[in-house]
Amino acid sequence: MIVGSEAGYPDAGWIQALPKQFWLSGVQMVFFASLSAAASYVIVSLCTLDVGIYCWPDSWWANWWFFNLIFAAVTGGIATVWFLIGCFRDLHALFRRLSAT
User: Among 14, 37, 40, 52, which has the highest number of CB atoms less than 10 A from its own CB?
Assistant: First the structure.
């Protein structure tokens, strides 16, 4: 049984409003991502050399890694809860549709 849009699916008009073709190919996106990562690496490396632009103290590095740890943990926790809510919502809809047939 194929269910049409009258069954309560959300409107897909926003998908049709997107451009027909994305302005960057996958290869170009990977190139720009790797180029920005390499540029960031060089800039941060220059900032941390003793003879470079500026020497960051060790306490800043400890704070930086602590921030990264906390940020990753909070982001992971929020994403986990978000996906669990969506999972249970979809499972509820699935079992409701299965019981209706």
Answer: 52
**Residue that has been written with the tokens 């008009």 in this structure:** 13
CA gyration radius, the chain: 24
List the alpha helices (DSSP H) in the chain: 13-16, 26-48, 58-100
Domain-wise residue ranges, the chain: 23-56, 58-101
pLDDT digits (tens, 9 = 90+) for 42-71: 887 777 766 555 666 778 878 888 999 999
**40 vs 43: CA distance, rounded Å:** 5
Sign of CA dihedral 30, 36, 39, 45: negative
- Could you give the CA distance from residue 91 to residue 99 in angstroms, rounded to a whole number? 12
CA gap 17, 47 in Å, rounded: 44
